Amino acid sequence: MSDFSELHRMLTDRLDLRAVGQHDLDALHRINADPRTWTHLPEGRHASLATTRDWIDRAAARWHTDGLSYWTARLRGTGEVIGIGGAQRHEPGFWNLYYRFDPAHWGRGYATELARAAHDAAYRHDPDLPFIAWVHAHNAASRAVADRLGLTDLGLRPDPAFGEPMHCYADREVGVLSRRAGV
């Protein structure tokens, strides 16, 4: 397993990825409160600053418990916060890809760039765990990111967190994924 310090900040061609923290609250709330970022899952939208604050606390804590979590994504040239994402360890034992970007920056390949960094970091930290992107069938943009990342669509499966059928894109074959069953 990798040391936390080498993963908490990563640079890609265009992004400066830094472990998420409360110093990013206002920018991340703006992104998470924007209904355009939640068209695939409207109930996920952050309606209050307190929701974003609690969400950041949980994500930041995962750096210390699991060694990897979400980064705040900034443009390398300007430092502007344009998104958040990364990989978190989920039960029953896989890396879960997550990202959300300001709609003003959609369509420029930032999600793919962040997703590649997340996959690399997850593999360096614990290569024994599968890397998975759970994607709603109607979320064509996220399905395209998973394809560009080279993940295989294993079909519709129940998402372990919520039980709803979603496309399971993975970097390897996986068995049954539920909170009660192993990978």
UniProtKB/TrEMBL annotation:
Domain N-acetyltransferase: 15-171
Pfam families hit by this protein: Acetyltransf_3
Coiled-coil stretches: none
PROSITE patterns registered for this protein in UniProt: GNAT
Superkingdom field: Bacteria
Alphabetized InterPro entries for the sequence: Acyl_CoA_acyltransferase, GNAT_dom, N-acetyltransferase
Protein name: GNAT family N-acetyltransferase
